[in-house]
Amino acid sequence: MPLLEISQVTKSYGQPGAKGGGVHRVVDVAAFTLAAGEQVALRGESGTGKTTFLNLIAGILAADSGSILLDGRDLETLGEAGRDRLRAETIGYIFQTFNLLQGHTVLENVELGMAFGRGVDRGRAEALLRRVGLGDKHRHYPSQLSTGQQQRVAVARALANQPKLVLADEPTGNLDRRNAREALALIREVCHESGAALLLVSHDERVLAAFENMQDFAAMNRALGEAGARNS
């Protein structure tokens, strides 16, 4: 059984001011699977629905129709609280903007990533920070770190709960070329070491070229074709 299995998933939003209460379909994916430990990159420019797609997988958003099976569990049947628990236990999320809490130290940010899952393990948090090259930055605050170092904290936090799946949304988008290359290598290495599958979305061809398995999300997302048909 795949770690992630998606079938006929759609997501739409209402369009304020549209005649007849119109809706805009953002995601319409017929099928997608990801095996345990697999690393896949999805190509997608801004506006193709790729962030919405990741948020559906993470259970942050609920799909309008279709099914998302994650680790053998159907997100549709769980309800919001159940999706929150499954996300905390199964998923690590790396955001383009890092989403670090500025009022907490580097170590506290990683520990907070554990708080809603299996519980805080300071020893593991410290080990993860050493693994990403920040073993001497435990007491620093995010504002005291470089952009590349902040991304390393975000990577450590995403791995804090030993997730089975790591989602990465344009994780190198705010980094210069050297830091982007190093961050991507680090993300892939720590996922491989921990046995976590990786699903990364990006529009950067240099990032995408590093993956043996790269798919075009724009081609996968049938909602884009519908939008084009409506606007033609």
Task: Characterise this structure.
The chain is α/β, with parallel strands linked by helices and 232 residues long. 38% of the residues lie in helices and 23% in strands. The protein has 9 helices and 9 strands. The chain has helices at 50-58, 79-90, 106-115, 122-131, 147-158, 177-194, 205-208, 217-220, 222-231, and strands at 4-14, 23-34, 39-43, 65-70, 73-74, 91-94, 165-169, 197-202, 214-216. Strands 6-7-8-3-9 form a 5-stranded parallel β-sheet, sandwiched between helices. A 4-stranded antiparallel β-sheet has the order 2-1-4-5. A hairpin with a 2-residue loop joins strand 4 (65-70) and strand 5 (73-74). Helix 3 (106-115) runs parallel beside helix 5 (147-158). 38% of the residues are buried. Residues 228-232 have low confidence and may be disordered.
Provide a short characterization of the protein structure.
By secondary structure, the protein is α/β, with parallel strands linked by helices. It has nine helices and nine strands.
Give the tags.
about 230 residues; alpha/beta; five-stranded parallel beta sheet; four-stranded antiparallel beta sheet
Mean pLDDT: 91
Q: Mind summarizing the main beta sheet?
A: 5 strands, parallel
Which outline best applies?
Answer: globular
For this entry, what is the oligomeric state of its chains? single chain
Strand order of the largest sheet: 6-7-8-3-9
Our count of helices gives: 9
N→C terminal distance:
41 Å
Which helices and strands appear, and what pairs or packs with what?
Elements lengths: L3 E11 L8 E12 L4 E5 L6 H9 L6 E6 L2 E2 L4 H12 E4 L11 H10 L6 H10 L15 H12 L6 E5 L7 H18 L2 E6 L2 H4 L5 E3 H4 L1 H10 L1
Parallel strand pairs: 3-8, 3-9, 6-7, 7-8
Antiparallel strand pairs: 1-2, 1-4, 4-5
